[in-house]
Amino acid sequence: MNPPEDLTRVPHTDPLEIYRYRDGLYAVDLLTAAVCEFDFFTWLDAHPGESDAIARGLGLAARPLDVMLTLFTADGFLRRDGATYRLTSRAREHLVSTSPFFLGPYYASLKDRPVARDYGVVLRTGHAANWGSYRNEKPWDDAMRTEAFATSFTAAMDCRGAYLGPALAKAAPLTGRRSLLDIAGGSGVYACTLVAHHAGLRATVLERPPVDAIARTMVARRGWDSRVTVAAGDMFRDPLPRGHDAHLFSNVLHDWDVPGVRALLAASFAALEPGGVIIVHDAHLNADKSGPLPVARYSALLMAITEGRCYGTAEMADLLAEAGFTGFGFRETVADRSVVWAEKPRG
């Protein structure tokens, strides 16, 4: 048995900008597609309107349009009058094709980048592109069922969790909780880190094959297998394990559109013990979805390669209340991440 890895340690330097380089990588391609393929800003200048009208006018799907409108609002290209989107003076001067200062030709040199081309399809259909725009790769959810991709992706998320986990452990309302279910918990890095910070806590990581086997190996390698177990299961198809007074969705809900999020929150409510807490650790937009800009840029990446996007805090509060949870809370952590939580009433 390996000695427990110290999961309370944090780096001496701040990696925030390194995270932001990767998380915001797709934003330039979304802007390129908007300018070069849809002439989005010229059209909107002539047709300011609500998101439904924009979707009909340009033939765009609701989920990617939501992400695009959020990004361009956070960028300062759009403003909202109630529910109506209008161009700002900066967008009108530099992103409308009839302006003498139009920058469309400057972006045209990027329009054949694979991600920019993929956005044309994603915006029209709402369906995720292949992972990383590789022609020989499957969409993310399908690729995760193959051992090679699952191993690589889980390792990528594990190294991120080594930094995000301690901040999550300090922010999450887990005092006095005894048993946590980490739903779609990947390598188990968050479950291990949480039990390392909370002496009375045990955890179970729920993952579908082949990730469950990867998680067992990584939990054991970290030396936390005496307090962290792994259960195989599909969070959409199988009832969630019962007997836990805390549920964690860490960087999970952003992979799914609203119907999927509703299904997961309902499943959590059904399985969680009365008085239990649900914790959602993610990159959250602010209540009116006007930013923060780094989260809006990250949402552009998620929209392209998954079925989801980043959610605003008001959206999360509404979805949790709809599922039956009460007592919404919010706390920022690190690297543009935060936690929201709520409780299942006691009877």
List the keywords.
single chain; alpha/beta; Arc Repressor Mutant, subunit A; 347 residues; two-stranded antiparallel ribbon; 14% strand
Give an overview of the whole structure.
The chain has helices at 16-23, 27-36, 40-46, 51-58, 62-74, 89-94, 104-108, 114-125, 140-143, 147-171, 189-197, 211-222, 258-271, 293-305, 313-323; strands at residues 78-81, 84-87, 179-183, 202-207, 228-232, 246-250, 277-282, 326-332, 338-343. The protein has 347 residues and is α/β, with parallel strands linked by helices. It folds into 2 domains: 20-135, Arc Repressor Mutant, subunit A (Orthogonal Bundle), CATH 1.10.10.10; 143-343, Rossmann fold, CATH 3.40.50.150. Strands 5-4-3-6-7-9-8 form a 7-stranded mixed β-sheet, with helices on both faces. Helix 2 (27-36) packs across helix 8, helix 5 packs antiparallel against helix 14 (293-305) and helix 13 packs across helix 15. The chain starts with 15 loop residues before the first helix and ends with a strand.
Number of helices: 15
Tell me the series of helices and strands, N- to C-terminal. HHHHHEEHHHHHEHEHEEHEHHEE
Main beta sheet: strand number and arrangement? 7 strands, mixed
What's the CATH first level of the largest domain?
A: Alpha Beta
Question: In brief, what are we looking at here?
Answer:
Helix content is 45%, strand content 14%. It contains 15 helices and nine strands. The strands form two sheets. The chain has a seven-stranded mixed sheet with strand order 5-4-3-6-7-9-8, with helices on both faces.
